[in-house]
Amino acid sequence: MTQTRTSGPVNFLMGQQRSSYDTGRRSFLTAFGALATTTALGVPAHASDAARDAATADEYVDLQLLNICDLHGYLQGPVGSDAVVRGNGGKTYTVGGVAALGTHLERLRAGRANSLFFAPGDLFSGWEFDAAAFSDEPTIEALNALGLDFATAGNHEFDKSPAHLTEHMQDGRAHPVVGRDTGFRDSTGRRFRGADFRYYSANVVRTRTGRTVLPPYHVEYVRGPDGRRIPVGFIHLTVFGSESFPNSFHPGLRTLDQAATADRCARELKRRGVHAIVLSMHDGAVAGGDFNSGSDPSGPAYELALRVSPDIDAIVCGHWHTRFNMMLPDPAGVPRPFVEAGFHGQVVNEINLRLDPRTGRVVRELTVSTSHPNTRDVTPHPGLKAIADYWAGQAATRERSRVAVQRGPFTRSRNTVGQSTMGDLAADWTLWAARRPVPSYDDSNVHRFVPAQLALVPLAPTVGQSLVRGDLTPGADGAVAFGQAWRAVGYGSPTVCVRVSGQQIHDALEQQWSTGPDGTLRFAPLAVSGNVRYAFDASGAVGDRVDPADVRIDGAPLRVDRDYRLATSSYTLLGMDGYPALTAYREPYRHQRDFESFIAFVRERRVLTPSPLDRVRVKDAALRGPGVGVVVDPPVPVREDGSPLPPSVAAILTAGGPRALRHGGHRPPC
Question: Fewer CB within 10 Å, N or C, the chain?
């Protein structure tokens, strides 16, 4: 369960019990008795005044730790206001891109005998088309070239399946179809061969066995005087609850308490004679807006940092897409670094530890931590620029490629009862997806496969976002382009087939109607699969508009006293788009992610023809009563500069249910 390696200068390659943290803001005393609450902690962050002269302490061994987080495949760098970070004094920097990152890393590593480069998760998967459309293989090629030594698994590393992470992303095994789904040729012309680094997580375990999916920690060895090898342990944590996030939804996984797991791993490392320990965790906090300071810290990682084992010498965070660099006291009152390096390649954090060569311990008072903006005003690293440019070109070609033909437009324009041709197509695809068992290389499930009997897809939910994001309009000769189909549905969440009662289906149909804040009747229509027909009473009150006898599945009336297999998105089942009747599901079976599954559906259909809008009808529309109701399309949140956020981020930021809980006005975008 551990891995040992010898570290030296890294060359570029040119070829279910939730932790109940009290997440309020706190004051704290440093080891020197200084009260720190809202004051930024300096540039760089020093554990003590003695750390300012640490470079002259030649009797100790210097270890440089470089880290980034939440790259999400942004090889070209973030866009819009995400490409600007603020430092001390309000100075701003334009940042991002692996080509610039390669140059900055070379500069930072120069002359360092012991340097390690790692990341606390979410390096791939999420929302960047250039990488996601090629099964995130471009990200791995870039990280290999950047010389990444190891990584903590974030929630997004599990977006497809545990086996996808271990067998494909790490080991290079292609599945299912080489050159179409995985196993693409990289910038050197070679087929994907996997990562040159390993992933770890101490708290993601199999539901059935309790065994970790990945090694929980590992040991690196750094060079000391007279050929001595000093061990440094790294503990890895994935954000708690990842198995119930909409993208990384996995019935076959669960996450263990973070603090208890970290403390246990620290004890194990100490028993092995490892006295220098770093915690790399994919969970974060909020600590002000400057990338190289920290103020008013709050959040789960902050609460953990205050109480996790004092044997841990530094804590590196991710997941919250925030930027801070500070020192926090451990439970014994001794300062240690507490950092998060933004997202999408904005910032590189550098922690410098001084190791006692006799004891192998970190001389904590000499620790220095500095965050560096990944500015674009440098000469791009030629190898990394070639990789980023190559995949941008490949993505442009793939976006235009033809995957099917269509015999008419599919649009989100709704008729009077909420139906649309695009909505009906999405519901038919959802049912199709949930009638196919996952292949053998997908190890996501614990329940047996039972084909779905019907599908429901929210079209204009009162909270969250609609799964249906775009239209399909015919191109030349009626062609359906890959990029258009990719963007038409979804935000990276899987289709899930679950067992629910007929009563729950009836209640979900009733939950299409609600009373708005101004007293108006709101209508949040659900698309139904082609084997379903139902009617609603436009004169009925909210909660009493659908008679189960008027709902027919494969021609038979809905029975509220029997169970059905229902297909929908994990996002809906988690209550994120406002249909709580479906959240008490049973026997979940996870299928493929939405945009990839929709591409497979379109490919198999070959010819798409809009169906007549006859799945829903209204009764008593002419009678006095509330009527059909007003449909309000969910607003799409934007960045500070007004540009739209990626769909996956927008879906989380607008979600209802458990994900609606905010911390200090901030919600991590998962």
Answer: N
Identify which of 496, 666, 660, 479 has the alpha carbon closest to the alpha carbon of residue 586: 496
Query: What six digits make up the tokens of 459?
Result: 């079209």
- Whether the model pTM is above 0.90: yes
Backbone phi and psi for residue 572, each to the nearest 5 degrees, phi listed first: -70, -45
Are residues 201 and 237 in contact, defined by beta-carbon separation less than 8 angstroms?
Answer: yes
Give the 3-state secondary structure of residue 240. coil
- Which residue type is seen at 91? K
Beta pairing partners, 235? 217, 279
204-263 pLDDT per residue, tens: 999 999 999 999 999 999 999 988 999 999 999 999 999 999 999 999 999 999 999 999
Rounded Cα distance, 553 and 427, in Å: 14
d(CA 493, CA 491) in angstroms, rounded, equals 6
Percent with pLDDT over 90 in the chain: 83
Residue closest to 568 by CA, chosen among 628, 509, 610: 509
Asked if the model's pLDDT at residue 36 lies above 90, the reply is no
In 3-state terms, the chain is what percent helix, strand and coil (to 5)? 25, 25, 50
For residue 303 the two structure tokens come to 């609460």
- Residue 599 is classified by DSSP as H
User: Measured at the alpha carbon of residue 242, what is the angle toward residues 238 and 245, in degrees to the nearest 5?
Assistant: 150
The number of C-alpha atoms within 13 Å of 93 and in the hemisphere containing its C-beta is 22
| Tens-digit pLDDT profile for residues 494-507 | 999 999 999 999 99
* Residue 43 reports pLDDT greater than 60: no
Angle of the 98-109 helix axis to the 382-400 helix axis, nearest 10? 160
**Which of 620, 616, 627 lies closest to 419 in space, CA to CA?**
616
Residue 402 half-sphere exposure toward CB, CA atoms < 13 A: 12
